[in-house]
Amino acid sequence: MADTDLTARLAALESRQRALEDELAIMRLIASYGPAVDTRNAQATAALWAEDGSYDFGGPRLDGAKAVGALVDLDTHRDFVARGCAHVLSLPLVTLDGDRATAICYSQVLVADGDGWRAARVSANRIHLARGAGGWRIITRETRLLDGSEAARALLSLEKEAP
Amino acid sequence: MADTDLTARLAALESRQRALEDELAIMRLIASYGPAVDTRNAQATAALWAEDGSYDFGGPRLDGAKAVGALVDLDTHRDFVARGCAHVLSLPLVTLDGDRATAICYSQVLVADGDGWRAARVSANRIHLARGAGGWRIITRETRLLDGSEAARALLSLEKEAP
Amino acid sequence: MADTDLTARLAALESRQRALEDELAIMRLIASYGPAVDTRNAQATAALWAEDGSYDFGGPRLDGAKAVGALVDLDTHRDFVARGCAHVLSLPLVTLDGDRATAICYSQVLVADGDGWRAARVSANRIHLARGAGGWRIITRETRLLDGSEAARALLSLEKEAP
Questions:
Q1: E-only strand ranges, chain A
Q2: pLDDT averaged per 10 residues in sequence order, chain B, 163 residues
Q3: Which ipTM value was assigned to this complex?
Q4: Do B38 and A153 touch (CB under 8 A)?
């Protein structure tokens, strides 16, 4: 086989491997969100977002990683954590586009209540990410309660996956 | 190192990489199901199935991708979506066998109810897939409510993973 | 391109590919737990653990794969399975360190109850794994109910991911 053929196949493999690594890195980032907020770790929560990233959950939008990290100090959040809670994000649908990506997933907030746990919130999520010097970070996360509103369904739309 | 050694290592890598890509592609397909049905997108739902694929959820079996897509128009489904619902599929156990694969997972249907969400359905799923010209598609999906019946447990059996 | 360059690139790819395979293998192991216990398959449950692995869920610690497998015969477990239940583990946060790994995830035990399913248990999990001759196995799994206790939050800590 010609050396150039080997080189081309190697380059193709490297490129496809980066895509796999990117997808798993984004899954890992999404799997980190729950542990970060359920331990009220503001720094770890902020570190999931780009410096100028935002989190729009339906209330006043949180602008900047630091503001997002500060959500662990909200009264509602403190109360949930004190009772016992789990922020569980589902397996995301990740769509890569070079150094950008979109992830669509569900999130549940399960809170201890009596002799069980209740789903206090179930939401749709659309997360845009970018790869920076420190790896993948969230640029925007939009979250809406799945309460029958069109706004939540719009986030789940498969028509506009491309970032 | 001899050129033939490099070629053999490269071929081994390519084959292993395809397996990783297949597994992630199947995960993506499974992560798409909820967004497709929760937005009542018949076309996107149908596109997850092979043309002649089927979905057996315990009621009358849906035969063909078009029939599966039409489930988004069922009265129960419309009602769930209007109230607010999430069809959440869990991280699947994927077993590849060349151009065939099996995925075992749980599915939950969470529906808005009062000041929270309730799990209206929790089911076992066994999904057989095949790789066609357009990528991985569902050939058969069997789903049964985890209501204590043997039928549901049979779908979760780890004894017969091979497709 | 020099042959040595190709060889080095190939070796780098092989090493990165092994990391991807390891992460997916660990995900598969975690996705197997629910199906193993919800079908009361003691052998499949035990096979997820190393021979001398342990499972510490807050009660008396189960030492050894065989003892872990025997949990499917506990009265509470038999009762849950008879009613209909799903042990759903969330997408894990996997951190690899050579032949060792840590996975952090949530687990839910959903049990049929009236006309729906209730989350009878929602827990934090920290799982240490090792790669042996037969692949990845659990060395220790620690699980604590998310009932507001510090013990559960400690398992979710992102400060000490390294195995």
A1: 49-56, 62-63, 85-89, 93-97, 100-113, 116-132, 135-145
A2: 82 96 98 98 98 96 98 97 98 98 98 96 98 96 98 93 45
A3: 0.95
A4: yes
Task: State the Cα angle at A103 between A93 and B110, rounded to 5°.
Answer: 65
Which of B96, B142, B146, B161 to mutate: most C Cβ within 10 Å?
B146
Chain B: residue whose CA lies nearest to A95: B28
CB contact under 8 A, B34 and A153: no
What the block records as the tokens of A68 is 């997002």
Residue in the block written with tokens 């952090």: C104
Task: Write out chain C in H/E/C secondary structure.
Answer: CCHHHHHHHHHHHHHHHHHHHHHHHHHHHHHHHHHHHHCCCHHHHHCCEEEEEEEECCCCCEECHHHHHHHHHCHHHHHHHHHCEEEEECCCEEEEECCEEEEEEEEEEEEEECCEEEEEEEEEEEEEEEEECCEEEEEEEEEEECCCCHHHHHHCCCCCCCC
The predicted model scores a pTM of 0.96
